[in-house]
């Protein structure tokens, strides 16, 4: 912890989008007349029918519903493209920075992007994709990923973007769950010089009978490596687009019509299909993108996330494009070809706003100041952080070394479920404290509760809830509304439970401490312990396993797996490697355990429940703080795990 405070830089306050007075006024309005506040926010979009019904929400289980702007009509792709053509047609929408720094970057204007999206929309329509159909997008960070998303939005198809690092098995689950009709992929991805066999992964996935709904696969030629094309199922994206008209009518969408599904891990079961709708989501993404990043017409904005995650959806695609911003789309990774890549890209494109994850900051911090100082970074004016708690040390390094103490750092807390940022400083209005996401944005009613659901006042710690809805909130778990209600609204009746814990200080600032459920946050990626456990169990030698998170210097949290082998099998390193490979095959490399510890048994209560609290302590090497183990069925198990840890 640090009690350092950083005032708003004078230059920032002077012409901020929202200065302290404007923020205070927004807070008052949002408190006293939320309908008027959210009506005004919605005017930033172009509606074909402006909503008269603003908020219609009940978290009461007997009458549960969440609707925003329910009688509004609009189209997200029109808001991201057509709307800008008259004023910003030649403005650069996307700067595509390729994996290989020696290749030139590509600039796509709003006009060029609009044309591509129209062609793609026509292609999808020609292939029989209709409003409400699901389309799976499994692409690397190339402009076609943005084009594909917006083309779906244009015709009212619901996209489901699957991160390119996920395995064929994960892809099967996500295609099957939403019954996709069409998949958009590339021959290969390219990350840090390494090729990712996307099309081959799709081919494997589509052999599964769970994927029989898929009629067409569109393949973007990216690396140009030869891939098997199965006729007539597989079609060449570019050939198909070239045949289409460069304009396409946009589907009128009701505000509550679905825009996309994005799968995310929870504490139990398979990943959930988080469903976002059109009007509220787009309003909220655009509003927060402008407010939190203090967006100006001439900014060059760069968010390093992948479009496979929600940060890419809201703060690479929908927010920035709805705001007419120029945004960098980066194909590579921060450490390739070396640790100065980000700073070189910033100089090359004169980036003014840089938004990344603490894990990247910590990894680059480890390389020292020289790679940063070798670049100018004079264009930068604002820095952002997202995805996991940022430790004050990393925050201060980011501020001092990367931002030369000139650029405010906005630590933005939010979730796939929330659609956009909920707790964050506003750079022209909020005094900063390193490591704190500071305060909720206007209209966001955050609170802390104890385990019984009693609201806690003042400076305290507790579980973070949201007492009321906001337009960007998810509407359901695709195909499983009961699970949606069960997961988020039953723990603390009448409120949305985030799954996070937080501390609130005497100034009302929030310090997010991390997940309080069985979700681990590895390098800013959410991974459910149950998912990893069921992947490990797929290895034939494994009898049982329990997975927990443990503190990791770079990744924030690492994955620690306790594995019990079937009787009579010998534990050895080769087997560890095989188990690791099994997880990579079933989920993807991001879920591979950092540590596997052989466990002769797991600590269980007499009713058979695994005591994860103890396993977390052992993994964290807090061996003196194991607490009461007397309720265990076999307390001796703990000692053997402690001994195993020491070895
Ligand atoms: C964590 C990513 C601390 C948190 C946008 C949350 C954070 C989960 C922050 C959501 C932050 C995200 N400080 N923790 N600024 N931002 N988190 O769905 O635990 O991938 O619940 O959304 O990341 O992860 P998700």
Automatic annotation (TrEMBL):
Tell me what reaction this enzyme catalyses.
acetate + ATP + CoA = acetyl-CoA + AMP + diphosphate
State the taxonomy lineage: Bacteria, Pseudomonadati, Pseudomonadota, Gammaproteobacteria, Lysobacterales
Task: Indicate which residues the UniProt annotation says bind ATP.
Answer: 387-389, 411-416, 500, 515, 526
Q: According to the lineage, what is the superkingdom? A: Bacteria
The entry assigns this protein to a family as follows: Belongs to the ATP-dependent AMP-binding enzyme family.
Q: What is its EC number?
A: 6.2.1.1
**InterPro entries, sorted:** Ac_CoA_lig (IPR011904), ACAS_N (IPR032387), AMP-bd_C (IPR025110), AMP-bd_C_sf (IPR045851), AMP-binding_CS (IPR020845), AMP-dep_synth/lig_dom (IPR000873), ANL_N_sf (IPR042099)
Residues noted as binding CoA in the record, renumbered to the chain: 191-194, 311, 523, 584
Organism equals Ahniella affigens
GO annotation, cellular component aspect: cytosol
Task: List UniProt keywords, sorted A-Z.
Answer: Acetylation, ATP-binding, Ligase, Magnesium, Metal-binding, Nucleotide-binding
- Names of required cofactors: Mg(2+)
Tell me which SUPFAM superfamilies the record gives: Acetyl-CoA synthetase-like
Task: Tell me which residues bind Mg(2+).
Answer: 539, 542
Q: Which residues carry this modification: N6-acetyllysine?
A: 609
* Domain Acetyl-coenzyme A synthetase N-terminal: residue ranges: 31-80
- The primary gene name is acs
Which GO molecular function annotation, any one, does this entry have? AMP binding
Residue stretches making up the AMP-dependent synthetase/ligase domain: 82-468
For the keyword Acetylation, the answer is yes
Domain AMP-binding enzyme C-terminal, residue spans = 531-609
Its biological purpose? Catalyzes the conversion of acetate into acetyl-CoA (AcCoA), an essential intermediate at the junction of anabolic and catabolic pathways. AcsA undergoes a two-step reaction. In the first half reaction, AcsA combines acetate with ATP to form acetyl-adenylate (AcAMP) intermediate. In the second half reaction, it can then transfer the acetyl group from AcAMP to the sulfhydryl group of CoA, forming the product AcCoA.
What name appears for this protein in its UniProt entry? Acetyl-coenzyme A synthetase
């Amino acid at each position: 912890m640090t009690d350092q405070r950083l005032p708003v830089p004078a230059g920032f306050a002077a012409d901020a989008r929202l200065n302290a007075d404007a923020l205070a006024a927004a807070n008052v309005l949002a408190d006293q007349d939320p309908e008027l506040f959210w009506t005004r926010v919605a005017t930033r979009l172009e509606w074909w029918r402006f909503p008269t019904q603003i908020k219609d929400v009940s978290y009461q289980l007997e009458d549960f519903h969440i609707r925003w702007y329910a009688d509004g009509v609009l189209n997200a792709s029109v808001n991201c493209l057509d709307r800008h053509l008259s004023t910003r047609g030649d403005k650069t929408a996307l700067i595509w920075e390729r994996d290989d720094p020696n290749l030139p970057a590509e600039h796509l204007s709003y006009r060029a992007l609009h044309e591509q999206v129209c062609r793609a929309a026509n292609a999808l329509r020609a292939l029989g994709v209709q409003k409400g159909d699901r389309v799976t997008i499994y692409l690397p960070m190339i402009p076609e990923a943005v084009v594909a998303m917006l083309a779906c939005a244009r015709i009212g198809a619901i996209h489901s973007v699957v991160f390119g690092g996920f395995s064929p098995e994960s892809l099967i689950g996500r295609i099957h769950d939403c019954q996709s009709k069409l998949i958009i992929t590339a021959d290969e991805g390219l990350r840090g010089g390494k090729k990712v066999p996307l099309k081959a992964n799709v081919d494997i996935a589509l052999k599964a009978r769970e994927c029989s709904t898929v009629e067409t696969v569109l393949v973007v030629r990216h690396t140009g490596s030869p891939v098997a094309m199965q006729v007539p199922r597989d079609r060449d994206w570019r050939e198909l687009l070239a045949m289409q008209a460069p304009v396409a009518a946009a589907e009128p969408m009701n505000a509550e019509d679905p825009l996309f599904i994005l799968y995310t891990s929870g504490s139990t079961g398979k990943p959930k299909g988080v469903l976002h709708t059109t009007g509220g989501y787009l309003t909220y993404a655009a509003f927060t993108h402008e407010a939190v990043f203090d967006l100006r017409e001439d900014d060059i904005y760069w968010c390093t996330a992948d479009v496979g995650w929600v940060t890419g959806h809201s703060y690479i695609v929908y927010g920035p494009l709805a705001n007419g911003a120029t945004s960098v789309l980066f194909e590579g990774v921060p450490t390739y070809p070396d640790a100065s890549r980000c700073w070189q890209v910033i100089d090359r494109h004169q980036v003014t706003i840089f938004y990344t994850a603490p894990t990247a900051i910590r990894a680059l911090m480890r390389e020292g100041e020289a790679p940063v100082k070798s670049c100018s970074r004079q264009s930068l004016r604002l820095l952002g952080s997202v995805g996991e708690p940022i430790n004050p040390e990393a925050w201060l390094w980011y501020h001092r070394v990367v931002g030369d103490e000139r650029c405010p750092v906005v630590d933005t807390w939010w979730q796939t479920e929330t659609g956009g940022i909920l707790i964050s400083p506003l750079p022209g209005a909020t005094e900063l404290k390193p490591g704190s996401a500071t305060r909720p944005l206007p209209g966001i009613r955050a609170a802390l509760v104890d385990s019984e659901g009693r609201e806690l006042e003042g400076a305290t710690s507790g579980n973070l809830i949201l007492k009321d809805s906001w337009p960007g909130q998810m509407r359901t778990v695709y195909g499983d509304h009961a699970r949606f209600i069960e997961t988020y609204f039953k723990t603390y009746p009448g409120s949305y439970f985030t799954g996070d814990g937080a501390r609130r200080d005497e100034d009302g600032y929030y310090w997010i401490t991390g997940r309080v459920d069985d979700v681990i946050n590895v390098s800013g990626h959410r991974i459910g312990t149950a998912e990893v456990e069921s992947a490990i169990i797929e290895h034939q030698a494994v009898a049982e396993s329990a997975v927990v998170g443990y503190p990791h210097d770079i990744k924030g949290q690492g994955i620690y797996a306790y594995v019990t082998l079937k009787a009579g099998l010998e534990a050895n390193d080769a087997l560890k490697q095989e188990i690791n490979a099994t997880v990579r095959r079933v989920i993807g490399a991001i879920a591979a355990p950092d540590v596997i510890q052989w466990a002769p048994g797991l600590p269980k209560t007499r009713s058979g429940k695994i005591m994860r609290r103890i396993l977390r302590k052992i993994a964290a090497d807090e061996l003196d703080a194991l607490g009461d183990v007397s309720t265990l069925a076999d307390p001796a198990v703990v000692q053997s795990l402690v001994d195993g840890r020491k070895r």
